[in-house]
Amino acid sequence: MIYLSEQEYIKRKEEEQNRKKREEEEKQRKQEELIKKKEADLKKKQELEQKRLEEEQQKQAAEDAKYVKGIVNISSIAVRDLIYSEPGYKADPFVVFKSADQKKQTTIAKETMNYEYKDEYIDLIYDPTKTKEKREVEIEVWDCDISGSNNLIGTASVDIITSFNKLKKFELFLQPKKSKKDQRKSSKTILTVNQDPQIGKVTFKMIYQDDATWVKQFKEAQQKKKDELINMKKQRIEFFRKKSAEKRNYPKGVVKFSKIAIRNIKKFDITKRTDPYVVLKMGNLKKQTSIARNKTDYDYQKEEYDLVYDPNKMQGESEAEIQVWKYDRFGKNDMIGAARIDV
């Protein structure tokens, strides 16, 4: 028990009230600080989540930007070590390449488990707006069956981005349709799918190019071919121009033919008889030997012939034509053969 004066009592009462008030204010301040801290933590968490989402979106946008509309060109296609059906069976394999709603195939090989589809090319148009995020080329190897439905040997797939603007070789192990696994890179430049050689494999080269690059290279290739043709044409024109100039430079003169002979002339009618003679022609001029009666080999002894060569009348021609004819007593003579020689 304590006995206080009225003044002291009032003083203590006021101090107690002030203490409680301060405690209440401190409690309220701490609660407000706790709320602010929670709000700050929540805001920071939201900001971090927003930043993470933005980074993922940027990363996805950067990844999507790699996949542009373009052309996927496939070449050097081959199948290797196919194992299908019973031992000793020979398949008629063909390869199908698919991208989105496109599907193209090779020719059909006959009775073989190893085959190169030489000079065969597959072009697939890749449009990211139509592929629904499908960024792979799917490969299927089939066995053709003309008497029924074709039989699937195995499948594989490859992401097109791995060959963007660079020609790359792929060697893919075939997998059953239901157990196809994701591909992974080997230590070399060749990509493989599930190192399981139980079915066989498909090999090919592939390059994925954007429209602008493909069109540019296509135009360059076309221009190169055009330039080569123009160059060949120019060379041909130049060759004949020089040839014509050489012919025009030939002086007027006489071409003498002597020691004329025929050898191994074929007997080709039912009589088995050949009566050959030789015709010498140059421009509008023509001379003829005597007729060798029933001969396949003959020397036209002491027969010599002169033909006047006039470059103005020959109109640039500088060749003499030698013809061998078969004489026919009862009908039309037949030409056996001819040759030309520059004078």
Describe this structure in words.
- It is a single chain.
- With 343 residues, this protein is α+β, with helices and mostly antiparallel strands.
- Among the domains are: 70-179 and 188-215, Immunoglobulin-like (Sandwich), CATH 2.60.40.150; 253-342, Sandwich (Immunoglobulin-like).
- It contains three helices and 19 strands.
- Strands 1, 4, 5, 8 and 11 form a five-stranded antiparallel β-sheet that branches. The protein has a four-stranded antiparallel β-sheet with strand order 3-2-6-7, with no helix packed on it. Strands 15-14-18-19 form a four-stranded antiparallel β-sheet, with no helix packed on it.
- The longest helix has 61 residues, at 6-66.
- The chain is elongated, with a radius of gyration of 47 Å.
- It starts with 5 loop residues before the first helix and ends with a strand.
- The relative contact order is 0.09.
- Residues 179-195 have low confidence and may be disordered.
CATH topology of the domain at 70-179 and 188-215: Immunoglobulin-like
| Straight-line distance between termini | 157 Å
- Identify the overall geometry: elongated
Mean pLDDT across all amino acids:
81
CATH superfamily of the domain at 70-179 and 188-215: C2 domain
Instruction: Tell me the name of the CATH class of the domain at 70-179 and 188-215.
Output: Mainly Beta
Number of distinct helices: 3
What share of residues are in beta strands? Answer: 25-35%
Largest sheet: 5 strands, antiparallel
**Helix and strand run:** HEEEEEEEEEEEHEEEEEEHEE
What is the tally of beta strands?
Answer: 19
Low-confidence stretches: 179-195
Helix-and-strand structural type: alpha+beta
Q: What's the helical proportion of residues?
A: 25-40%
Name of the CATH architecture of the domain at 70-179 and 188-215: Sandwich
- Rg measurement, Å: 47 Å
